């Protein structure tokens, strides 16, 4: 909203002054934010927020972009999802036929196919958790693949080191300081799809993810619907020119961030995220994560040249009361699955030019701990979804769950996440130099996309 | 650049406080850098009645978790929200500014997410009894207190760490994040053995006692009494709480801990890449004082350390909370509804006790630089007096100009907000904007404040 002097002239007596829709948006964001959690366990209890901000949203007078299928026929938009905290892949893509699964998991084991609450068989060996059943249509129609036994070859079981190496694309390289991410280097190494695109990459989050570090024309935009100058509209152009000059001589990353912010305002402001109506009857979960995907769909459909979007979801560090069947983990798998399913439905044929990759920094140990949870492990489960994914299969290099052959009580990493990403970057994002994005790594194709 | 030491003041204050004020600049100029630091390092002797009067209405402040839980009218989440506002008020209005900056450091170092079940109130107790009580004490005491803090126990799940079924969440993070650092010399086996040492470290649950709720409780029957080996230490069978206490003592003075924590503190106060010689001196001070935080801070803010670190040449980028607080401090805007101001700050990406992961809010420019729009938006609203949680008006902003002629407004505001560290070219550019108006209205005054607050010069410190 751009307040006018008139609209604020009577505000002196109003204790809650300012733009009413700004107030409302802040309250909404707060309510969402307090429900957010990360590694510390997502025992989400939503507060009953006191007081409603009842101000009516004002309609914006900016012309709208018409939503239409768009995007380059040769380069996909990549949507990367970092599931922070260590997602338990064994509770998503469940090895129901492995004789060493159920006894090690005890009460945390999901029932076999055919049993009450049992998993849905995917390929005779793995089964999909009931909480993730929203993903079945994508899997069955060949748009979704699971990659089991996947992960980073770096042996660390520290969340933060594991994330750093994965996002930096530098496992096993003892890098103390990682200053660029694999996705950042990808964008930097490619000419823009649209030479005029102000925003090539967007992290729908507050803190900028390392994955995208050093990417040109890339920003954190936690709320895509609220990316516009405040203050008097009459002076916006002049104030903006001042900001442009003020930041022009800054060093990176500030200079690039300011430039991208200034360049992006108009184009994001022209997209009506607030009133965006998903296609195909898609219903996103009304959560921060779901809404971020919904905004991402609007962003992609607007066809403004965005090439990569990162949307993270934390809260997977289930050391206690994991609840893979009807507890906390089940709820999070449901949110993840319903979100991805809605996104696919919403995008429809646009999905032929979109690839979604979701992964975690590691999986969890095979054995349950004493708190009905699991501790940090190694190999995990990646998800890859898109119109050109060789879906309908669980890609894996399974050697069993016999404790004697595990990687210190955890599923070993048998498929390098870099192979999955490299192939997508080459085949779907058209980067002929993708091999160079992951230094000191020899690429092996897993034939994940066509 | 060789800077005249008389111009150091705003840069040192920038690091040692949540933002300059004219009074604080006068204080440091009167006392000298080291005199000011010495004064600030005895926070209990500094008058803080203005802040205390603002805190008087938070009747739950200083209460036990049990008392907060039994609050007659406020649910725990509401107290937690007021607690975020209290943090904002302290950062903004306390005269014990260096102390508040060190509190901020330990709040991130021993991060506890404050919006969950027991954590709504336990974090507020942790803030008073662990972080604020020991922020300038011995690191060893702070570490022990954090380990026994019910907030930390609840946050990192040690309350479910029991004999025969150890779980390693806290044991891992206490070595990785609180002491040795991730490159420290510990193995996966050390993590598991330390987890066994911490079995039984728990707190009173609400269903166990409504009066003792939220207090530390060692459940000896849940403790693993077998022998353990951690980091080369042999912990004999039959021990109790002493098992983990022995390891905490070992960790508290381990060379890796001294290196990791001192370096992190030096980065907090001196810059993203502080000189090795300063870090070495601070580590030596740690050894000489058995980890006395006050003495380490005193060394880091000594004239010699500052001369070597040259903050004016190695600026840092304010994190969002710091950015907002420094604006409130410089302008003197009152925060009569601090909880509402917290809501405003949510969109900037940083609000107290809301970082979900145990590593605390990041203190690197790369994490925050691309989040400029939320700052610019708020700068506009603050400048125009449109901020819904405060009562200040355009007239208040104009009064801050103190009758300065129009052709000097940008310099006046820049000096007010940064103490004079804003580059001349930025000031000139903003003045050029002001100069386009022959007869500037209150709107333009507000925009002048907005532009200074939005500038890179105000963003760095």
Report on this structure.
The complex is a heterodimer of chains A (450) and B (461). With 450 residues, chain A is α/β, with parallel strands linked by helices. Chain A has helices spanning 5-8, 20-34, 102-105, 136-140, 159-168, 182-189, 236-247, 254-269, 288-301, 328-347, 417-427; strands at 77-83, 93-94, 120-121, 127-128, 144-151, 201-203, 218-220, 308-310, 354-360, 380-386, 393-395, 415-416. Chain A has one domain (67-224, 271-437): Alkaline Phosphatase, subunit A. Chain A is 26% helix and 11% strand. The longest helix of chain A is centred in the C-terminal third of the chain and has 20 residues, at 328-347. Chain B is mainly α and 461 residues long. Among the domains of chain B are: 156-271, no CATH class; 320-459, no CATH class. In chain B, 57% of the residues lie in helices and 3% in strands. Chain B is built from 25 helices and four strands. In chain B, α14 (276-289) runs antiparallel to α15 and α20 (372-384) packs antiparallel against α24. Chain B is globular. Chains A and B meet through α2, α5, β7, α7 and α8 of A and α5, α10, α18, α19 and α20 of B.
């Amino acid at each position: 909203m751009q307040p006018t002097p008139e609209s604020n002239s009577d505000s002196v007596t109003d204790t809650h002054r300012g733009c009413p829709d700004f107030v409302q948006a802040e309250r909404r964001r707060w309510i969402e934010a307090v429900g957010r959690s990360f590694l510390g366990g997502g025992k989400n209890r939503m507060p009953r927020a006191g007081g409603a901000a009842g101000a009516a949203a004002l309609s914006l007078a900016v012309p709208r972009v018409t939503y239409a299928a768009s995007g380059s026929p040769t380069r996909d938009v990549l949507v990367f999802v970092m599931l922070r905290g260590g997602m338990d892949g064994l509770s998503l893509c469940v090895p129901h036929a492995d004789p060493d699964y159920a006894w090690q998991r005890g009460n945390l084991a999901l029932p076999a196919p055919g049993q009450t609450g049992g998993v849905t068989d995917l390929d005779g060996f793995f089964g999909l958790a009931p909480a993730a059943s929203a993903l079945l249509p994508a899997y069955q129609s060949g748009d979704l693949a699971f990659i089991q036994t996947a992960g980073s070859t770096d042996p660390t079981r520290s969340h933060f080191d594991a994330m750093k190496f994965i996002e930096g694309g530098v496992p096993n390289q003892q890098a103390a300081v990682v200053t660029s991410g694999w996705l950042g280097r990808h964008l930097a190494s490619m000419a823009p799809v649209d030479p005029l695109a102000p925003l090539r990459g967007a992290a729908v989050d507050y803190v900028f993810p390392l994955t995208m570090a050093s990417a040109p024309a890339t920003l954190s935009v936690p709320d895509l619907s609220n990316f516009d100058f405040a203050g008097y509209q009459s002076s916006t152009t002049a104030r903006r020119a001042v900001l442009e000059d003020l930041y022009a001589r800054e060093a990176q990353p500030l200079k690039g961030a300011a430039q991208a912010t200034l360049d992006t305002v108009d184009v994001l402001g022209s997209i009506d995220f607030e009133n965006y109506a998903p296609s195909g009857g898609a219903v996103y979960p009304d959560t921060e994560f779901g809404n971020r995907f919904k905004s991402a769909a609007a962003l992609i459909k607007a066809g403004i040249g965005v090439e990569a979007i990162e949307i993270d979801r934390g809260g997977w560090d289930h050391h206690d009361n994991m609840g893979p069947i009807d507890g906390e983990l089940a709820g999070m798998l449901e949110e993840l699955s319903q979100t991805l399913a809605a996104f696919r439905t919403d995008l429809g044929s646009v999905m032929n030019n979109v690839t979604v990759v979701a992964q975690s920094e590691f999986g969890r140990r095979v054995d349950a701990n004493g708190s009905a949870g699991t501790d940090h492990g190694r190999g995990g489960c990646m998800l890859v979804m898109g119109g050109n994914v060789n879906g309908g299969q669980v890609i894996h290099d399974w050697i069993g769950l016999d404790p004697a052959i595990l990687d210190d009580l955890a599923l070993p990493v048998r498929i390098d996440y870099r192979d999955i990403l490299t192939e997508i970057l080459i085949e779907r994002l058209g980067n002929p130099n993708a091999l160079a994005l992951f230094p000191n790594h020899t690429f092996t194709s897993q034939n994940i996309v066509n | 650049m060789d800077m005249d030491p008389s111009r150091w003041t705003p840069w040192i204050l920038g690091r040692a406080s949540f933002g300059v004020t004219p009074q604080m600049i006068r204080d440091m100029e009167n006392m000298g850098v080291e005199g000011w630091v010495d004064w600030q390092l005895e926070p209990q002797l500094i008058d803080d009645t203005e802040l205390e009067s603002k805190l008087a209405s938070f009747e739950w402040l200083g209460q036990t978790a049990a008392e907060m839980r039994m609050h007659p009218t406020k649910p725990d989440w509401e107290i937690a929200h007021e607690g975020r506002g209290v943090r904002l008020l302290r950062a903004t209005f306390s005269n014990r500014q260096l102390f508040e900056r060190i509190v901020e450091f330990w709040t991130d170092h021993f991060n506890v997410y404050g919006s969950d079940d027991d954590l709504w109130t336990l974090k507020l107790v942790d803030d008073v009894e662990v972080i604020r009580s020991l922020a300038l004490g011995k690191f060893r005491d702070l570490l022990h207190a954090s380990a026994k803090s019910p907030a930390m126990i609840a946050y990192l799940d040690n309350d479910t760490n029991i004999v025969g079924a150890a779980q390693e969440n806290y044991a891992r993070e206490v070595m990785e994040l609180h002491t040795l650092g991730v490159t420290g010399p510990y193995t996966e086996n050390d993590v598991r053995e330390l987890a066994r040492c911490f079995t039984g470290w728990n707190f009173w649950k609400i269903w166990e006692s409504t009066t003792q709720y939220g207090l530390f409780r060692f459940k000896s029957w849940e403790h693993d009494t077998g022998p353990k080996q951690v980091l080369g230490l042999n912990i004999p069978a039959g021990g109790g709480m002493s098992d983990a206490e022995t390891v905490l003592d070992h960790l508290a003075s381990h060379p890796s801990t001294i290196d990791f924590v001192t370096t992190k503190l030096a980065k907090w106060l001196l810059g993203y890449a502080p000189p090795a010689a300063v870090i070495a001196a601070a580590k030596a001070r740690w050894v000489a004082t058995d980890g006395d935080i006050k003495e380490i801070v005193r060394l880091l803010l000594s004239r010699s350390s500052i001369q070597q670190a040259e903050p004016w040449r190695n600026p840092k980028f304010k994190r969002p909370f710091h950015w907002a607080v420094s604006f409130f401090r410089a302008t003197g805007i009152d925060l009569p509804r601090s909880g509402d101001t917290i809501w405003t700050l949510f969109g900037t990406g940083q609000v107290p006790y809301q970082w979900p992961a145990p590593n605390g809010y990041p203190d690197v420019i790369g994490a925050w630089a691309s989040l400029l729009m939320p700052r610019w938006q708020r700068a506009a609203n603050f400048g125009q007096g449109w901020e819904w949680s405060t009562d200040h008006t355009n007239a208040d902003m104009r009064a801050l100009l103190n009758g300065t002629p129009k052709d000097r407004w940008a310099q006046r505001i820049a000096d007010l907000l940064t103490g004079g560290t804003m580059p001349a070219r930025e000031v000139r550019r903003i003045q050029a904007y002001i100069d386009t108006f022959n007869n500037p209205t209150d709107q333009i005054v507000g925009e002048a404040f907005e532009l200074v607050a939005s500038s890179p010069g105000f963003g760095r410190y």
